Amino acid sequence: MLEAPLSVLIGAVVMLGVVLLALRWTFGTGRDLPVPPVPDPDDPTGDGLLTEVSRVPTEAAAQVLRARLAEAGIRSTVGRAGEAYRLLVFPADEVNARLVVGQERW
Questions:
Q1: What is the per-residue pLDDT across 78-102, written as a single tens digit (0 to 9) for each?
Q2: What average pLDDT does the chain have?
Q3: How far apart are CA 21 and CA 73, in angstroms?
Q4: 36, 43, 105: which is closest to 79 by C-alpha?
């Protein structure tokens, strides 16, 4: 009489093990998958789609240049690079932005 409940208990443990392995295989953590690279904040080429058109020492100068670009209809943003401020635009606007930034205004 003791053999029947023992075989049922062993069968239940084996079945539980199979189910746990199947769940682990299906919904595992994926630790063996490659991790996407973390962008380096000090990498000068890590601007994504943007291109640097000017670098100035003060934030006020960067905002003046950004306002000039906005008047010309060119979208831009200001970023930091150490002590300097960088004016960034999309590559399609780079040539026009360099022309606008290079113009002297009286």
A1: 988 888 999 999 999 999 999 988 8
A2: 84
A3: 60
A4: 43
Distance in angstroms (rounded) separating the CA atoms of residues 67 and 59: 12
Task: Specify which residues 80 forms β-bridges with.
Answer: 85
pLDDT tens for residues 51-61? 899 999 999 99
Q: Is the pTM of this model over 0.70?
A: no
Distance of CA 95 to the CA centre of its chain: 26
Rounded to whole angstroms, the Cα distance separating 67 from 14 reads 72
Helices 59-71, 94-102: axis angle to 10 degrees equals 120
Residue with tokens 């904040």: 41
- How big is the chain, counted in residues? 106
